Amino acid sequence: MEVAEKALAKLKAMNETRKGDAHPTFAVYHEGRLVARTGLRHSSKRDILVPHLKKDLRVSTRFVLELARCTKYLDDWLYEVGDA
Question: How many domains does the chain have?
Fold first, then answer.
């Protein structure tokens, strides 16, 4: 599994892809409220983070990598984006 997929799984992102979408779309909810939405696009190297993900999640590349490597968790991300 690639970095983006691991990070989105850690955030319990829901797949909201609609028929005809160019890329899979994921949304992260907290207490029933949408906190972030992003598309899952692949770079040629699956372990390289594509730039839009960190922008959509409003965190640094390092933070996304830490989510994927299991050193950061959903609560850490909610705190980082000010939704905890």
Answer: 1
Residue 29 has pLDDT above 90, yes or no: yes
Q: Which residues pair with 28 in a beta bridge?
A: 36
Give the tens place of pLDDT for each residue, 39-82: 887 665 666 666 788 899 999 989 999 999 999 999 999 999 98
d(CA 54, CA 69): 15
The two structure tokens encoding residue 34: 């949408």
Calpha distance 74→40 (Å, rounded)? 18
Q: 45 is in which domain, residue-wise?
A: 3-80
**Whole-angstrom distance, CA of residue 52 vs CA of residue 39:** 8
Inter-CA distances, 82 with 7, 21, 30, Å: 18, 30, 12
| Long-range contacts from 59-66, C-beta under 8 angstroms, 24+ separation | 64/3, 64/4, 64/7, 65/3, 65/7
